[in-house]
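Next comes this protein.

***
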Amino acid sequence: MKKVSSLFKASILVLFSVLIVSFSIDKKQQDPKLVGIWKGFEKDGQIEGIEKHWIQQRFEDGSYVIMFTTKENCEVETFTEKGRWWTEAGKFYEAAATTKDVDIYNYEVKGEESVEFKSIKLSGKNNDTYIFSDYRLDLK
């Protein structure tokens, strides 16, 4: 009976250790300066002839939601995107829920009001040509 009890305790301890390690591996860091509601705009930045506006909310838990409005040849479309974001070693990572690809950017916080992003990888491909800025929305 004592062997079974010791074996059970050891099994529980191993299981608990595995759970702790897996949670710590999955834990991503978020730069608190990027949390909040941001707006942005670009024209011809990713696709020639497309004007894009967005409002993005980045949450402390690493989730985000973006509302995009695009305009091309006087046609306007809106759509939303949800996903996860994190920062590591001076880089910003964004993973939309609808894809397995992770977009990677260098970023620079410019005061409390803006952040500049420079792409490294977009849609799974190396791309260092896309540059844009987000501007903090003051909702007070």
Summary: The longest helix spans residues 2-26.
